[in-house]
Predict the 3D structure of the following.
Amino acid sequence: MDGTGAAAETHAFQAEVAELLNLMVHSVYSETDIFLRELISNASDACDKLRYEAIAKPELMAGDEKLLIRIRPDKDKRTLTIADNGIGMDRQELIDNLGTVARSGTKAFLKGLAEAKEGAGASLIGQFGVGFYSAFMVADRIEVVSRRAGSDQCSVWLSTGGAGFEIAAATEEQAKRVPRGTEIVLHLKEDSKRYAEPFEIERLVRTYSDHILFAIELEDDKGSARQINAASAIWQRPKSELKADDYTQAYRSITMAFDEPALTLHYKVEGRQAYAVLLFVPSAAPFDLGDPNRKGRIKLYVRRVFITGDAELLPPWLRFVRGVVDSEDLPLNISREMLQNNPQVAQIRNGLTSRVLSELESTATKDAPAYEKIWSAFGPVLKEGLYEDREKGAQLLGLARFHTTMGEGLRSLKEYVADLRPEQGEIYYLTGESVERLRSNPKLEAARARGIEMLLLGDPVDAFWTMMAHEFEGKKLKSLSQGDVDFGSVPLINQAEDQKTAPQDEAGILKAVKDALGDKVSDVRASQRLTESAACLVAGAAGRDRELERLLARQNRGASGAKPILELNLRHSLVQAVSQASAAERSEEVSDIAALLLDQAYILDGEVPEDPAAFARRLNLFVVRGLGAAPGIVQDSGTSPNT
Ligand code: ADP
């Protein structure tokens, strides 16, 4: 850089950053406005960090106590400068923080990008907000001048958004301008010059950053500045003063989202512990919801001072809830580690958890359609609580909504139990890959014939929480793909069903099929589940349900390798055919039928037969035979004799 004599040093961006920048530079994303709230949010974080460090080291703030963010648009130069007097970055921090992708949000963005369809990247930018790098949507050259609080070194980071960036010591003039904190100068692109207009900046700050706790000042060309944001802790204001729109703006500025909150909880707790709460349930699932670390995103403040964004203030199965908790009692200098086992924090967590659940319950009663939307977005996460949280399990079951065989809509267990069939003592469910697939699963047949409603569980998490023994209003939840079922006492809808031909030679058929299949199955037995289809696979009463076993096998996560039980519908003519074939000692035909029955049972569960070619060959053989063709035509794999 000019004037210092120290040569600039060139660094390459981490590959992910280069990818991100490439996207930013060529972005066709029209909502470029988000860059400003991202930079302001970073500046605010920097002020938060300094205020936090200064609790232990007050000298870091000495002489310049008022933390603030200052924005300077310059129409003539076509630049926009965003400066803060927060914690700042030293040379190495500039290299690390602005050369790599660290934050999980940005990582999730890149992952989303890899999975998204061609061209979907643009809309993803808005949904994620990609931090500092989003500034390259509006600027083609960015200078970051920064000085870590308490340091006599001031450094400059400079990039034009290509493959790398330069690092240099600050010029004298820059160093003077930045006694502490960070100054970011954006050289705006021609088509982004509106961001050099003061009124445009003021509009954006009011819209997206009004609730930043530090003053945001707008500086004019004469160097005088005025504050343009409210800078108040909205959660400390009385509810009566706030309108729905204030909450929406607060939600967006606190969570960096664009949607409307589906639910807003704003209250204060007084008494043994005093704290203010402003929580939101988003209307759309955030992208990092599936992140394996399952971290929550509630911001903890102590007497208006930001402490941390990752205190565990809600259980992981409520991690979609966003917002702020501001405690009056916790010590300001509480370390982030200490928060883990702090009994006061635990007490706040219990309080918040109960409050969120009761708010969900009351929404479910007062506004069922709104609640169903929340459930559709976050139900899979809430269900994690069904196997993690014994205490809240019952309440969560009450909140759960399910697709069932009764119509297309969602049903609660309360509704299910109210509509039980006479003599029905259990709540039946079937887990699988998708609700639509489950609807045609043959395991539902017998229960359907008796008008019994069944829960169709199509989320991966369903295979897990159903492992735990659950009960609702004294009725056990019972899998239709595990163990025995007995619908005998529940009357058939259509009594004529019962008059159908009674099965013949039950024991003979079961033994013949079992002998033919050997150790491919753990048992062959008569089915109480089937009325139309010929066969299905179930799990033994002990051990794991079929769907869970399948999921674990697919993910290589310690499936037990337990063999399923093949259940046969003894009234089905293909099953009956076993009896004739074995009476006539056509053992090859018996094994072909047995193999076909097993393979179709796998297919009905959404799996592939063990040997698809053999399956096709057998199927063709029987079809051709059924059509009355000469047996010679389908000898093997479908080659015709006259070619
Ligand atoms: P995020 O803010 O989500 O971590 P960014 O890409 O926006 O991601 O920023 C990367 C990092 O750079 C931040 O985590 C922070 O450490 C640092 N940083 C960015 N802006 C500032 C700033 N104004 N003051 C101090 N540090 C900053």
The CA atoms of residues 14 and 100 lie 5 Å apart.
